[in-house]
Amino acid sequence: MTTGRQQDLLPGTLDLLVLKTVARGKMHGYGIAQHLKARSADVLQVGESSLYPALQRLLLNGFLEGEWGTSENNRRARYYSLTPAGRKQLASERKEFERMVDAIRLVLVGP
User: Fold this and answer.
1) In the chain, what are the domains?
2) Helix (H) or strand (E) holding 82
3) Would you state the pLDDT for residue 72?
C-alpha cells in the first residue's frame, strides 16, 4: 500500500530499474526518471543526484552505451541504450532481486 509519499529505493535496485527502463529503447536521463515515476504511480521519484551516478556506473561497466542527440524540446541530451552485456546483467539482477523478494516474503508470511 502506498501512502502517497516518496519512497526510498531498496539498496541495489536503481541499477535494475534503469536497465529495465532502457531495455525499452533509447532514453535520456530525464525520460528514464519520468518513466520510473509514471510506472510506479509517483512512488519512485529518482533524483539527479542518484540517477546520473548510476548511469555513469552502468556506462563504465559496459552495460549501457551513451550517444548525444537532441531531446523533444530541442535540448542536447545523452541517450542511453542497453548493450548485450547490459541485457545479461539485467537478467542476472532481476533473478537475484526476485530471489530476495521471495526470501523476504517467506519471512513475512511465516509465524
Assistant:
1) 13-109 (1.10.10.10)
2) strand 76-82
3) 87
